[in-house]
Amino acid sequence: MKARLFILFAATALTGTSLSAQDTGLCPATTTAQRVSQDACQKAVDLFKYVAPQLGTAISGGNATLGQGGSLGGLGHFSIGIRVNVVQGSLPQIQNTSVAANGAQNSPPFETKSQFIPMPTADLAIGIFKGLPLAITNVGGIDLLVSAAYLPEFDGSGVSVRVPDG
What we know:
This protein has 2 helices and 7 strands, in the order ααβββββββ. It is of the alpha+beta class. The strands form 3 sheets. Strands 1-2-5 form a 3-stranded antiparallel sheet. It has a two-stranded antiparallel ribbon with strand order 3-4. A two-stranded antiparallel sheet has the order 6-7. Strand 6 and strand 7 (159-161) form a beta hairpin. The model has no long low-confidence stretch (mean pLDDT 81).
């Protein structure tokens, strides 16, 4: 048991990759025009990489059929759920951010504000196929899943976020 655990840790350590914060690969600066906007591009990439996992967790929020460990069990079975996914995250405060016009700069970290990020969601699951019996469970069950989330509009601090076509 200890040997397997050691091999697992060794394999994880040897196959790891380096973290790529402040990587300018997404914002090349081969021309003067690109160099002028490189710092703004890099700050946008850094902000996206910081906020995206928090918003992704709030949007996805878990199993569409709450309380189910498998499929619903075939035709005639359904589940309707309304929930609010909430993540306690931190959002960067970008009001006092300055952008350099001479390439990407090593800037101090953004100040952040800790707050809850809510995402109201409604889910519907309809059983289609129960699956094939195997031991004490069924394998290969099929459900139809429908999910809808409310994405509020945001307009503040010079930043506007709107979902296209409502």
